[in-house]
Structures are given as C-alpha cells and as structure tokens.
Specification:
The chain has 274 residues and is mostly helical. It folds into 2 domains: 2-47; 50-273, MetI-like (MetI-like fold), CATH 1.10.3720. It has helices at 8-43, 49-52, 55-68, 70-102, 104-119, 126-133, 137-160, 165-173, 178-215, 221-230, 234-273. It is flat.
C-alpha cells in the first residue's frame, strides 16, 4: 500500500489539533484532581466538611434542591437578571462609545469622568440604588449595568480609536464622511475588541447580578448564598456557588463560539474577495 505523504500544511494542522487535545486533557485533569483532593481531604478529616462542604455533599444537596423544584426558579431569576444587565450594558455602552468617537471634543471632556467612574466601587452606591429604583429586580439589573457599562464604553472606544490611520486617510481622500469612516473602516477594525469586551462583560455581569442579589433579593442564587450563610448551611452555599460557575462558564462558552463563527465568516469573506 502506498503511504500518504505528510505535507507541511497537514503536519502543522495535526500539531495544532494535538495541542488542543493536550490542553483540554490538562484542563479536565486539573479539575478532576481538585475535586478528588477536596473529597479526600474531607473524608480523612483534614478539612471539616461542615465549613468547607465536599463534592459528594454538594451533589446530594443539588439533587435535593432539584427534586424540590424551587432551585430551577432561583437559577432562572439570576440568569434572567444577568442576561438583561449584560444586554443593556453592551448596547448602551457601545452606543455611547460610538457617539464619543464621532465627537473628539466630547471624548476629551468625558475621558476623566470615565476613569473616575470606572474606579468607583459600585457596591458603595447600593443604598442609593435601592432608593432610586426600589428593592427588586430593577435594583439588581442596575447594579449589573453599572459594573459593566463603563468598562464597555472605555474598551469599545479604545477599539474604535485603534483603526489604521492610513486606511482612514485613504477614505478621507476619497471624500468619506465620519459615518462612512465608521461603517467601512472603524467598525470592522474594532470587531475583535468588541468581542473581547463581550467575553469580559460575561463575567462582570454575573458579578454585578450577585452583588445586587446580596443587597436586595428574595430569590436567585445570590439569595441562596446569603441565606445559606446566615443559617450555616455551607452545602447550600457551595452548591449555589458551583452552579454559578457552571452557568458563567456556559455563557462564556457561547460567547467564545460566537467569536469563532464571526472569525470564520470574516475569513470566508476575505477569501471570496481574493
């Protein structure tokens, strides 16, 4: 039988695939080692399961909560609040960034205020948020928006301002106005930055949502964590925390998948142009 000749390109693709598999195996291996070591230390008494819980106790608590039915309600509440806060902060923050890019004077005026607002600990505004919008879902969503929106404005604006000067100069020489520059040069160049901001805000929106639920909530995973801490049910606290990690990881995975699809579409368009 004739042996297939391994071309350099095929060899490169094979090495990339092997590296991906190697990384995935290490990721799952480290996670399995952490879970196993945690369970072992609690089983032999090196760690007190009353304070630290254990993977087996978390699994039992998760099954009990799922059997009760209320757990999915709490998950839905937190997930909805997080998605709303994420969507508002990304949409409004991106629009503000575009408006600041269109006006250089406004950008210079707003820059120091953006820096100060970004450094402001948002949790300090918790009592004011309750006064402004009440103690409900609106307060939780507002907390998530306040944490994400300034990061969105600053990061997206930086991406918009990083467009290649040569390309902008070429379009200006052809008579393009600001809106045409934005459409044909600036936005395509800022797309990678925008996708990076999306992935950053996935985490920040969860942080803001849980912070809001710590302050004012009668339902949600943050509420379960606070309640579990008050009654010393560490199993409940750890189960809600692990669930948060899974949800945040899943949301991040969806955003990463969307980024890959956009990159493939962009590459496909580039090949069609060539």
């Amino acid at each position: 039988m004739e042996q297939k000749i391994m071309t350099p390109h095929r060899r490169y693709l094979l090495s990339v695939r092997r590296k991906k598999i190697f990384v995935k195996l290490w990721q799952f291996g480290i996670l399995a080692a952490i879970i196993g070591l945690w369970e072992l230390l609690t089983a032999v008494g090196a760690m007190d399961p009353f304070f630290m819980s254990s993977p087996s106790r978390i699994a039992v608590t998760f099954a009990e909560l799922c059997a009760g039915g209320d757990f999915f309600y709490h998950i839905g509440v937190t997930l909805l609040e997080c998605v709303i806060g994420f969507a508002i902060s990304m949409g409004v923050g991106s629009v503000i960034a575009v408006l600041l890019w269109l006006s250089e004077s406004a950008r210079r005026v707003a820059e120091p205020y953006l820096v100060v607002l970004n450094a402001l600990p948002k949790i300090a505004l918790g009592p004011l948020i309750i006064i402004w919008v009440g103690s409900g879902t609106k307060a939780i969503v507002l907390m998530a928006v306040m944490i994400c929106i300034i990061v969105t404005v600053i990061s997206v604006l930086e991406g918009l301002c990083s467009a290649a000067p040569d390309k902008l100069l070429l379009l200006r020489s052809m008579g393009a106005n600001r809106l045409q520059l934005l459409r044909y040069a600036v936005l395509p160049e800022a797309l990678p930055t925008f996708l990076s901001v999306v992935k950053i805000n996935v985490g920040l929106s969860w942080v803001g949502t849980i912070m809001g639920e710590y302050l004012v909530s009668g339902a949600g995973l943050g509420y379960l964590i606070v309640y579990g801490g008050q009654v010393f049910r560490t199993d409940l606290v750890m189960t809600a925390t692990v669930t948060l990690c899974v949800l945040a990881g899943g949301m991040y995975g969806l955003m990463s998948l969307a980024e890959k699809l956009c990159a493939r579409k962009k590459n496909r368009r580039a090949k069609e142009i060539k």
